[in-house]
Every structure is written in C-alpha cells, then in structure tokens.
Amino acid sequence: MRKVLGILDDELVLSKRKKNHYRASLLKRFLNVVIDYLTVLNLSVFVGVLLGLVFCGLGKNEWLDIFQNDSINISIGCLVIAVYYISCEYFFEGKTLGKYVTKTSVKNISGKRASLLDILIRTGYRFFPLEPISIFFGKKQGWHDSLSLTMVVDDED
C-alpha cells in the first residue's frame, strides 16, 4: 500500500519535501477537460485519416466497410484516449496539453509525481460511464482522481 503523508484539508496537501500543493480549481479542471477533449478529437481524426491512407495505399479499399462498425470506432477511440492520457501524464511529468495551458499537473496524494501504475489506474477509471459527472459528487475531484489516489494540483511558480 502507498504511504500517505496526509491531506491537510480539501485544498492543501503537504508532501514529504515540505512543499505545499494546492488542488486545481474546478474552472482549471473544466478547461483541462475541454482542451484535452479537443486534442483527443483531433488525434482521432488524424488516426482515422492515417488508417484510411494506409489501407488505400495497400489496395485494401474495403476498409470503409470496417469503419462502418461502431465497435471498431469505439475501440479505436478508447485506444486513442488511453494512449494520449497515459503517454502525456507519464512522459510529460503529469501534464497533458490541457494541463500545460492551465499550469496544473497530476500528483499522487503524497504530492509526488504519479507513478506509471497510478496513471494506468487513473486512465482506466476515465472509461466508467458516469465518471465525467463524478466531479460533482464529493470533494471536487472525479473518480479517476479519488480511486487512483491522485489529484490535479496547481504548478509551483
């Protein structure tokens, strides 16, 4: 089990190095969602076009029939979402494009950088059907935060 040094209140978290981390506001969290959604949407279009070009280049014009299947489209969309969040939050120190814009990042509840396991769990919970509205139940954090023991905090200046 992970060591938790403690949450002082709903907003302030004290890490082992005695740095204060303040949870990001709901406005910043909303902006993160909007920016990341638009980024994922554009990535999905790019992947679709790329797959189309590859299949047409290989002479496989029946790819159009494959992409008429909703299950294939949903699977590709979920894969794009997972790759986006996992790669960004792991390789860019807890930041997606939205978090770069709002100057926030993902930390574990001890205030340290989230581990790959934290990020995998966090990303998995994003696929729960009611997760997008879970931020309105409880402590201004979604299930992908609370269940993975992570949080989005303002960056230090």
What this model shows, in words?
By secondary structure, the chain is mainly α. Helices cover 50% and strands 10% of the residues. The chain has one domain. α1 crosses α3 and α3 runs antiparallel to α5 (116-125). It is elongated. It starts with 11 loop residues before the first strand and ends with a strand.
What's the short version?
The chain is mainly α and 157 residues long. The chain is built from six helices and four strands; from the N terminus they run ββααααβααβ.
Helical segment tally?
A: 6
Biggest β-sheet description: 2 strands, antiparallel
Low-confidence residue ranges: 1-10
| Helix percent band | 40-55%
Give the ordered list of helices and strands: EEHHHHEHHE
Shape: elongated
Strand order of the largest sheet: 1-2
Instruction: Report how far apart the termini are.
Output: 31 Å
Mean pLDDT: 83
Number of folding domains?
A: 1
Could you tell me the radius of gyration in angstroms? 18 Å
Please specify the SSE layout and strand pairing.
Blueprint: E1 12-14, E2 20-22, H1 26-57, H2 63-66, H3 70-91, H4 97-102, E3 104-108, H5 116-125, H6 143-146, E4 150-154
Antiparallel strand pairs: 1-2, 3-4
